[in-house]
Amino acid sequence: MGLNADMPLYRRLLRLVTRAGLALLIGQAGAFAKTPRELRLPAGNDWRWAVDYGARTDPSHARQYDLLVLEPDHARPLAPLRRPGALAIGYISLGEVEKRRPFAAALATAGALLAANPHWPDARYADLRHPRWRAEVLDRLVPAIMARGYNGIFIDTLDNAEAMERADPIGRTGMIDAAASLVRAIRERFPAAIIVINRGYALLPQVADAIDGVLGEAMATRWNFATRGYDRLSDTDWQWQAERLRAAKAKNPALALLTLDYWNPADAAGVRALYTRERAAGFVPYVSVLALDRILPEPPR
């Protein structure tokens, strides 16, 4: 979703933590996983969420929200960003890996990475069926996010599983099931964590009961890479996503349904109309710019 950031803090973590220290960190994450489930996303849709992958999140803006989605590898304290009772979850990409990530080279050597994403050439698709990738996610990446004080994770790029399996039904068979299995394994390993996934509609029937929220990205609007501007999508496009979000909630009535639209923030009336539309449909909306590198407060209603 949007632009992925590099992971300088993760590199420093790997350099500073000894093998024994890393084992302790993972053990602590495992202990956290055994605690009772206490945190939940708010009920209904009269609450606010925001996403910011930038390195300098504005606390005065951040503290207006009940849920923040942040890039976890920026070195910053979370306390100033969370108002009492608010939640912060860390971004993780499961369907692809940027080549600059410190673990990318080892994954490539192990055969866990596939072709480059044509839309993001610096990223390679992850083979969600590969045990090396599964181990990296469960034993290192998610524990590292939780150890930094986040309340859970926001899972991106799960749509890649469906895209890969459709493009090569023989060579990439089982990709959707593997993605669903990994999400369920994360829930089993971290039962107390908040888990929100971006789209991933092909595997939603298998994981709706194992997650807390699902995001419909680019519901009514999107960034057009060809024209380098924002486009409105058709009512048919909006309805396609809305039906899948609602089907997931039918399987899990506690599921939070979030939406993300992209629009020019200078057009306050247009941004306000997007919030109004999504909220009236029962969703929890947020409107931002493609880079997702800062919090853009909702215009006054």
Can you walk me through this structure?
The protein is α/β, with parallel strands linked by helices. The chain has helices at residues 8-16, 19-33, 59-62, 104-110, 131-147, 159-167, 175-189, 204-207, 235-251, 268-280; strands at residues 49-52, 67-70, 87-93, 96-98, 113-117, 120-126, 152-156, 194-198, 213-217, 221-224, 229-232, 256-262, 284-288. The strands form three sheets. An eight-stranded parallel beta sheet has the order 1-2-3-7-8-9-12-13. It has a three-stranded antiparallel beta sheet with strand order 4-6-5. The longest helix is centred in the middle third of the chain and has 17 residues, at 131-147. It is globular and about 50 Å long.
What are the secondary-structure elements, in order, as H or E?
HHEHEEEHEEHEHHEHEEEHEHE
- Anisotropy-based shape: globular
Give the DSSP E fraction (strand runs of 2 or more residues). Answer: 15-25%
**Amount of helix:** 25-40%
Q: For the residues shown, what is the average pLDDT?
A: 89
Radius of gyration: 18 Å
> First CA to last CA: what distance?
27 Å
Number of helices: 10
Biggest sheet strand line-up: 1-2-3-7-8-9-12-13
The low-confidence runs, each spanning 5 or more residues with pLDDT under 50, are 2-36
Biggest sheet descriptor: 8 strands, parallel
| Helix/strand class | alpha/beta
User: How many β strands by DSSP?
Assistant: 13
